[in-house]
Design a protein that fits this description.
With 99 residues, this protein is an all-alpha fold. The protein is built from five helices and no strands. The mean pLDDT is 94.
Length: 99
């Protein structure tokens, strides 16, 4: 996935933990695309932000699995993870738009 695709996906990525997990996975692919983020300083900022995105993702998915993988987990996502996810998504998008 290219930068434009990640930026587009970011618009809805915090709606639920499934969309967020897909977003984090797709955003990770930019790390291997040397043309996507050619500037070293920007790449370092991207990698640091992506790592934080992954931490929130891991915590949310672990809790969801511990809760028995409920079909409706929206309340927990919103109360515990959504704000952090939105902030990190905003930060990642700002980094990617610096090109």
């Amino acid at each position: 996935m290219k930068v434009a695709g990640v930026l587009e996906q970011a618009k809805l990525a915090a709606e639920d933990h499934f969309k967020y997990a897909r977003f984090v996975q797709n955003a990770e692919m930019l790390n291997d695309d040397t043309d996507a983020i050619p500037d070293g300083e920007q790449l370092s900022a991207y990698q640091a932000c992506w790592f934080e995105l992954e931490i929130v993702n891991a915590l949310a998915l672990d809790e969801w699995e511990s809760d028995g993988r409920p079909a409706d987990w929206a309340t927990t996502w919103t109360e515990r993870y959504k704000k952090d996810a939105e902030d990190l998504i905003t930060n990642l998008c700002a980094i990617l738009r610096q090109q």
